[in-house]
């Protein structure tokens, strides 16, 4: 790509940012779309988020992604926040507008597009969601907003699941999220569920860890979706597959949260064909071609 006087800059703020795959997503998209745009990671130290956002605005930086640990903190420095991102309580994408940045959350919509691209639905589904942290909370919102029939939210710390359930149920006006202690999974009514793994358990290098190892649990699962993509196949996915379920990792969610951010920054629509070409590049990068 030729860098000239009209080249736009986007980037990522977080700490650390060295291992991010986002530059590959956005620079590949810019190449394919013929846009003169570069995407770079910016490590931002503790206490410097306000400076980073103000500095980016002063430099005319078109858009930023925001990652750990600043997804909540950054909200204090924005001109405007998309209502969905406000509900989720986390912003992962900033779009430059007149007078400051507008914050969005594309993680959730990214998961939705990833699921759609695998032919999975949420509307009318009975879902088991593992976890009640930041990621699982966003998934709970997604499931509630997109019309899931019921979501059993299992967490090690029951009170956290109860808090999320009260908040999400209150927001959508129906009792869709059912909070449970993880150990009570046998109480989930019989049937086949879409199970979404939204905890950090099983993430490399702890690839042998899993929240629930019991075969009886996986007998209730028709599809397992893990938000983790490293390792490529988590133990949760392995156990789901061993019981005859389909299983997916979180790489397409990462892909689509980036695709949606790119769409917001550039006012374009990225076709599934272009998105899947980027997916192949990502797979090659992490040795899964
Ligand atoms: P994230 O932003 O990735 O969601 P988080 O907000 O710290 O991270 O949430 C981590 C989730 O993983 C929580 O649901 C957490 O359970 P608790 O609420 O009980 O802490 C879950 N988790 C982390 N380590 C776990 C473990 N060893 N066993 C079971 N659950 C675990």
Give the CATH architecture of the largest domain.
Answer: 3-Layer(aba) Sandwich
Number of strands: 12
Helix content: 25-40%
- Main beta-sheet strand count, sense and barrel state: 6 strands, mixed
Would you tell me the structural class of the helices and strands? alpha/beta
Query: Which strand order do you get reading across the main beta sheet?
Result: 2-1-3-5-6-4
N-C termini distance: 24 Å
Rounded Rg? 19 Å
Order of helices and strands: EHEHEEHEEHEHEHEEHEHEHH
Any idea how many domains? 2
User: What general outline do the C-alpha atoms trace?
Assistant: globular
Would you write up a description of this structure?
The chain has 289 residues and is an alpha/beta fold. It has two domains: 8-105 and 252-285, Rossmann fold, CATH 3.40.50.10860; 109-249, 3-Layer(aba) Sandwich (Rossmann fold), CATH 3.40.50.720. It has ten helices and twelve strands. The strands form two sheets. Strands 2-1-3-5-6-4 form a six-stranded mixed beta sheet, sandwiched between helices. It has a six-stranded parallel beta sheet with strand order 9-8-7-10-11-12, with helices on both faces. Helix 1 crosses helix 9 (251-266), helix 4 crosses helix 9 (251-266) and helix 5 runs parallel beside helix 6 (158-172). It is globular, with a radius of gyration of 19 Å. The chain starts with 7 loop residues before the first strand and ends with a helix. The structure holds 2'-monophosphoadenosine-5'-diphosphate.
């Amino acid at each position: 790509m030729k860098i000239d006087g009209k080249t736009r800059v986007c980037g990522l703020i977080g700490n650390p940012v060295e291992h991010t795959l986002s530059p590959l997503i956005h620079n590949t998209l810019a190449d394919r779309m013929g846009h003169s745009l570069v995407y770079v990671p910016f490590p931002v130290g503790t206490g410097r988020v306000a400076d980073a956002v103000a500095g980016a605005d002063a430099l005319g930086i078109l858009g930023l992604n925001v990652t750990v640990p600043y997804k909540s903190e950054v909200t204090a420095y924005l001109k405007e926040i998309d209502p969905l991102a406000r509900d989720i309580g986390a912003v992962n994408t900033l779009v430059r507008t007149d007078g400051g940045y507008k914050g969005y959350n594309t993680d959730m919509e990214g998961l939705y597009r990833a699921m759609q691209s695998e032919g999975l639905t949420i509307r009318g589904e009975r879902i088991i969601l593992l976890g009640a942290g930041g990621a699982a909370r966003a998934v709970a919102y997604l499931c509630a907003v997109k019309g899931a029939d019921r979501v059993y939210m299992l967490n090690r710390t029951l009170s956290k699941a109860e808090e999320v359930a009260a908040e999400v149920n209150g927001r959508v006006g129906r009792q869709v999220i059912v909070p449970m202690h993880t150990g009570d999974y046998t109480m989930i009514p019989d049937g086949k569920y879409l199970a979404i793994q939204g905890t950090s358990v099983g993430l490399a290098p702890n690839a042998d860890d899993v929240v629930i190892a019991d075969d009886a649990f996986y007998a209730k699962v028709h599809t397992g979706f893990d938000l983790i993509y490293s390792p490529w196949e988590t133990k949760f996915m392995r156990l789901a597959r061993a019981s005859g379920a389909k299983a997916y990792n979180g790489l397409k969610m990462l892909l689509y949260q980036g695709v949606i951010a790119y769409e917001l920054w550039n006012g374009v629509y990225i076709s599934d064909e272009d998105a899947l070409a980027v997916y192949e590049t990502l797979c090659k990068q992490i040795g899964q071609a």
